Amino acid sequence: MIIKISLSFKGSKGEKKLFALFDTVSIYSCIREDLAEKLAF
Q1: pTM as predicted
Q2: pLDDT tens track for 8-26
Q3: With the C-alpha atoms ordered 17, 15, 33, 1, is the resulting torsion angle positive or negative?
Q4: H/E segment holding residue 9
Q5: Which residue from 33, 32, 35 is spatially nearest to 10, judged by alpha carbons?
Q6: Cβ distance 25 to 2 under 8 Å?
Q7: DSSP labels for 10-33?
């Protein structure tokens, strides 16, 4: 089952509200590289 939720992501460069997809049987999570670069150092 996949769940889609709107979450606020915060990093040193700011905050952004994004949709996150969660797979109920997955053991890993990830974020797209371009979105991480906009929020991180």
Answers
A1: 0.54
A2: 988 898 888 988 888 888 8
A3: negative
A4: strand 2-11
A5: 35
A6: no
A7: EETTEEEEEEEEEETT-S-----H
- In the chain, the amino acid numbered 6 is S
Please count the residues of the chain: 41
The dihedrals phi and psi of 37, each to the nearest 5 degrees, come to: -65, -35
Whole-number Å distance between alpha carbons of 10 and 39: 7
Cα–Cα distance measured from residue 28 to residue 31, given in angstroms and rounded to the nearest whole number: 11
* Token couple for 22: 């969660």
Q: Tens of pLDDT along 31-41? A: 888 888 888 86
